[in-house]
């Protein structure tokens, strides 16, 4: 398996991993499918803050981060997303992607990383807890999908950068 920064040519494969999760699960509250055009723009803008795992020429998953909230006061606080293809789950690929992403974040001076985890995603909560993220907030009924309200768990990890 190879971990590397995403390339614009990966956009279709990333959409193929992400869109079934958007359309069929509650792991994300969004209902709008990702487009290759939008993903190419994200990849171009984020550089090494958008990592992918590749094996035998096939994309197995991705992890990316972006500023948690707008404005200069939040410049060192990021939120991330990590998603895997079904065949990649349970193989340590998510952990490897997160290690690469966190190393890149530290290199960029990021102090704090958040995960926004659906209250209906206990596997996501356990995954992040195993990586040292701790639940710092539960926002009741802030997500709406599939005709129901869902809680959002905010999980945080201090990466240790102080400058």
H/I helix tally? 4
CATH superfamily: Gcn5-related N-acetyltransferase (GNAT)
CATH topology: Aminopeptidase
Biggest β-sheet: strands ordered side by side in the sheet: 1-2-3-4-5-7-6
The oligomerization state is single chain
- Spans of 5+ residues with little confidence (pLDDT < 50)? none
Q: Note the beta-strand portion.
A: 35-45%
What this model shows, in words?
- It is a single chain.
- With 163 residues, the protein is an alpha+beta fold.
- It has one domain: Aminopeptidase.
- The protein contains 4 helices and 7 strands, in the order βααβββαβαββ.
- Strands 1-2-3-4-5-7-6 form a 7-stranded mixed β-sheet, with helices on both faces.
- Strand 6 and strand 7 form a beta hairpin.
- The model has no long low-confidence stretch (mean pLDDT 95).
- This is Phosphinothricin N-acetyltransferase.
